[in-house]
């Protein structure tokens, strides 16, 4: 039997991580997950196994512990590549606890980079965000659009993370790095076995919509209808999490097969289509058959008016294009929400 290629997924029991583990396993990769379960449950492993028939290897520890990272790699030097999702991601919390955010998000990344150099595992994919573009001057945003000063410590950890990668790639030519800038990931796996599980009151739009529709929340507050957009509400590029997960598999294969053109590459992962908050609600109502209780209120401080991706670079270079629509994503999110009630 030929040995399968082994991929490390940090944060692999989380929202985007778990969907990526499924796609990797379905493509025949062996997956090992590291997660400290700070924002996910161990039960996700059972669910991944239910979908793919394979239970991923799992180790529970904190990547900020350099000794544990080192010990892990000393036992897993056969890993061929890694995808680094593990990070704290709540914007508001990061404003209150900046040191914790810098510590968690940056020291874990530095520990991983040191270890992969030592163990000659050059291929590293980083989970970045369109938050680096701030309020863009020109739409859609390309990878060359200016990076704007971060408006939160969380956003800053993504910017600094990318800077660390750029410097590391310059100094250490053996490292092969890809940074993926996600637009707004939404939706869930078709099986409704994995999806987004917000801790407490959701801050993101789609979990708030589905929780309102199912009766956990009384109504959705739409933050502003006085923006300079066609219907006055903010515009985002909502990307189905399964499309996003597939892009990670392609990025990993690009590195493993040495198809990358530079040793630090950055790609936008979005659909290229801007959708307003009111259009997103309309899509949800259409596919779910539910009337959503919502109220227009004032703007949420710090919100960007509109941002959506120019996806040509990812389309042409990665050969990846989002296949699923906002309707597909909303339906899957709704089925996932309903499955949680059972
Ligand atoms: C937010 C974060 C961003 C992070 C991303 C992760 C902020 C300012 N930005 O992006 O840094 O990378 O999540 O997914 O927190 N909306 C409502 N009512 C709600 C919730 C949201 O109207 O109850 C609107 C927002 O005003 C926004 C849109 O829905 O226009 C999307 O909001 P959200 O899902 O929070 O994502 P972002 O703000 O784009």
Explain what you see.
This protein has 342 residues and is of the alpha/beta class. The protein has eleven helices and 13 strands. The chain has a seven-stranded parallel sheet with strand order 3-2-1-4-5-6-11, sandwiched between helices. It has a two-stranded parallel sheet with strand order 7-10. A two-stranded parallel ribbon has the order 8-13. Strand 1, helix 1 (15-26) and strand 2 (30-34) form a beta-alpha-beta unit. Helix 1 (15-26) runs parallel beside helix 2 (43-52), helix 7 (205-214) packs across helix 11 and helix 9 crosses helix 11 (326-341). The model has no long low-confidence stretch (mean pLDDT 97). Residues 91, 129, 131, 155, 184, 203-205, 208, 220-223, 234, 236, 277, 300, 302-303 line the site of uridine-diphosphate-N-acetylglucosamine.
List the helices and strands and how they pair.
Layout: E1 6-10, H1 15-26, E2 30-34, H2 43-52, E3 57-59, H3 66-75, E4 79-84, H4 91-96, H5 98-118, E5 123-129, H6 153-171, E6 176-182, E7 184-186, H7 205-214, E8 220-223, E9 235-236, E10 238-240, H8 241-256, E11 264-269, E12 275-276, H9 277-288, E13 294-297, H10 312-318, H11 326-341
Parallel strand pairs: 1-2, 1-4, 2-3, 4-5, 5-6, 6-11, 7-10, 8-13
Antiparallel strand pairs: 9-12
The structure holds uridine-diphosphate-N-acetylglucosamine (UD1).
The site of uridine-diphosphate-N-acetylglucosamine has 19 residues, from helix 7 and strand 8.
